[in-house]
Write a structure and sequence with these properties.
The protein has 250 residues and is mainly beta. The protein has three helices and 14 strands. The strands form four sheets. The protein has a five-stranded mixed sheet. It has a four-stranded antiparallel sheet with strand order 3-2-5-6, with no helix packed on it. The radius of gyration is 23 Å and the shape is globular. It starts with 17 loop residues before the first strand and ends in a 6-residue tail after the last helix.
């Protein structure tokens, strides 16, 4: 008697988007416009003036309500708070400011670090996902004998206990958990490194999570080219003695 088994793979989608929430006047319209694509969404505040918009693509937005306008940046997997109350009119005011990082998402308990496209291009590290992940707190280079030797370890966990996601889909190698489906570094819009406190949807990751968002289309024409050259003389030597010294192998 022959018995056949069929195994199907299931795609679990995790969050590759962010959210916007905040306060304005009660029962008024709040309009959110993407500064990258020009798309617009409108939501009504409740009786207390609260509003919320989920599933927002990472990027720059302009929020307008009752003549008050704010510009914010939405990061992957986090919420951005906006207060749209009109300020009291003053005779004279002097404002001194400086550029700071995005506000802390007080609605989340996740420990995560987000690198934007501009930061990824400027960071003085090798152009690969694992090298960027090593910049997050509590992340170190794992066992050099596993995988390609550069896999990060989160909080002392094994390098085989990490999870890798692209646009919310799990791309971790299900056979050895030491590799993942990769994409060109120049195609990454944001990279998020979760080191703790993340939700149950990442429950199979006992170490940490690396989540990537690919670039999206905008209203601006853009182009680019990359050239990688690796001469034989600059390549690293193999660990196997038979590769380096065949005569020594007998």
């Amino acid at each position: 008697m022959a018995v056949g088994f069929m195994i199907s793979s299931v795609a679990y989608a995790q969050s590759s988007e962010g959210s916007i929430y905040g306060q304005s006047k009660a029962s008024t319209a709040v309009t959110v416009t993407s500064l990258d694509s020009g798309s617009t969404r409108t939501v009504q505040t409740d009786a207390s003036g609260n509003f919320s918009l989920a599933k927002m693509a990472p990027g720059r937005y302009k929020i307008t309500s009752n003549g008050v306008t704010r510009e914010i940046t939405v990061a992957i997997g986090s919420g951005t708070k906006v207060v749209l109350d009109a300020a009291q009119t003053l005779d004279q005011v002097e404002v001194t400011g400086r550029r700071t990082r995005s506000a802390i998402d007080v609605q989340s308990v996740e420990s995560n670090t987000v690198f934007t496209q501009e930061q990824l291009q400027a960071l003085p590290v090798p152009r690969n996902v694992n090298s960027v992940a090593l910049l997050a707190p509590g992340v170190v280079k794992g066992d050099s004998g596993l995988g390609d030797g550069g896999i990060p370890s989160f909080g002392g966990a094994s390098v085989a206990e990490n999870g890798y996601y692209i646009n919310g889909f799990d791309v971790t190698n299900i056979r050895n958990f030491l590799s993942y489906a990769d994409l060109p570094f120049d195609a990454i819009s944001e990279q998020q490194i979760k080191t703790g406190g993340y939700g149950a949807e990442y429950g199979r990751s006992l170490g940490g999570v690396i989540s990537l968002v690919t670039k999206r289309g905008t209203n601006e024409w853009k182009g680019g080219a990359s050239l990688y050259w690796e001469p034989e003389s600059l390549r690293s030597k193999g660990k196997n003695v038979k590769d380096n010294e065949p005569e020594a192998a007998g």
